[in-house]
Amino acid sequence: MSMTTPAGWFPDPNTPGTERWWDGTAWTAHTRPVQAQVPAGPAGFGPPTVPMAQATSGSGGRGRLLALVAAGVFLVGAVAVGAVLLGKGDDADPGAAPNVSEPAATTADPKNSRSATPPATDDSGSLTDQLNGITIPVPEGWEKSDSSLDEGATMVTDETYDCPAGGSPLCRRGRVSSITASRTEGKSPAALAEQDIATAADKAYEEDAVGTRIYGGIRSHTVLKSQSVAVAGRAGHLVRWRVVTGAGPGGYVQSLVFPSSVGSESMVIVRFAFDASPEAPKLADMDKIAASIRPIGDATSGGVGSSIGPG
């Protein structure tokens, strides 16, 4: 039986004092200073080559594992019994008897667990992009997406409808996704936003994740905004388009780009897609959601600056 390590921060095998992001299948380019010590040893995570060694089946390995578990249980029991006997000695002070339940109640320090950083804020009311270190409150009428077809951390409006060009009954009137920008060397937030907006439009209204043109494809677009903004305390840039589709009312798409405040400060892209229909979220909500973006663990600072006006 093989075991696969979930995504998370692990000690960089090539750079002491640094942690690198493991995406569940391979190392990525994202790094940050070491936040906590990760347990080492045969059952630990983060050996020199991959975050978790592959566990293989076999009677020998199973026997060794059972033996180690049994030895651990025996040792804890022996410590507890010894403490009780010492507490009952003739010379012992009854008021100073040791608390025998204390060793058994000891638990792992969350700061030393591989999931302890960044701070846990993934509650039902927030969309958390742990890799990029940001959180976005989920507005009323929205929900976090659990679809494997969505890219990055995604939230969508909670009602579905039949797609205008057919092919699916699961179209959504609003979608927001936070992802990590790729191929960013030497590129500013403005350059990346200008580059990404066409991709954001295609993913929202050209073809869905399985290649179906559920909106009849994009026929034309109009640039509504291209401006510098401050997001989560970082200098960023946004570009917004209005797209016309072959079927349905079309919609609005936006690429918002800014540097992450964690790790190697990779560029973050937050993509927005709102249908241009009365039932869809108001265009002003696009600005409100952008303004609500915060660094993980920071409930006050950040957000988009006043340079964003109404849509």
Biggest sheet: strand arrangement: 6-7-10-14-13-12-11
The count of helical stretches stands at 4
Q: State the secondary-structure class.
A: alpha+beta
Could you estimate the helical fraction of the residues in percent?
Answer: 10-25%
Average pLDDT: 75
Oligomer: single chain
Poorly predicted spans: 38-122, 301-311
Commentary on this structure:
This protein is an alpha+beta fold. The chain contains 4 helices and 15 strands. A 7-stranded antiparallel beta sheet has the order 6-7-10-14-13-12-11. Strand 12 and strand 13 form a beta hairpin. The relative contact order is 0.12.
SSE layout:
Layout: E1 8-11, E2 18-22, E3 27-33, H1 59-87, H2 102-105, E4 126-129, E5 134-137, E6 142-144, E7 153-157, E8 160-161, E9 171-172, E10 174-180, H3 189-206, E11 218-231, E12 234-245, E13 251-259, E14 267-275, H4 283-291, E15 294-295
Give a short overview:
The chain has 311 residues and is of the alpha+beta class.
